[in-house]
Write a structure and sequence with these properties.
The protein is about 75% helix and about 0% strand. It is mainly alpha-helical and about 200 residues long.
Length: about 200
Amino acid sequence: MRYPAGTIKALRRIVTSVDGVVVALAMATLGMALDWRYGTSLRTAGLTGFAWVLVWLAAIDRITRLLPDVLTMPLLWLGLVAQLHPATRTVGAELAIGGAVLGYLPLRALELAWFNLRGVEALGFGDLKLLAAIGAWLGPQAAMLVLVGGALGGSAWHLFMPATVRVRLAQSFPLGPWLVGATLALMLAGPEWMGWGP
């Protein structure tokens, strides 16, 4: 979903439904939890903004099965730019670039190989861009943990759903909410889980 009009339509749908209440509660809870976890600072403000955008992306992906470029791409660049100032830095420029590259290029290569082999997309481009943004903000170790945690969590959920509502394995399911959930859990777990230096 590249065109902003599609994103605006999805946002309106969220705001005018129960999803809007869930998003608002998640944002408020995350704001307090991250402030408690990391202390009040510009870096925490940046991480909180990052987490809030992730919540919206998860809600949009759940409804549309698309992650809009208009949100994922600025999130990626902001993660890289945040590394340029000591007050907002999380992992530093080198690890942020490494995280973005590791979050995108290897999985893009695997996705291309799978598409050439089976003729179906294993991952959407939005998922790859989201993972690249996560790597830019949190580093390469976090990007890999998020990928593993999100993929395992999403797969397990769909495998153990009741048979009457189960999504067949041959069908796709939105991975974005699971990547977001794994990212937020990792952020709340703390810097040591993400391989951040002192």
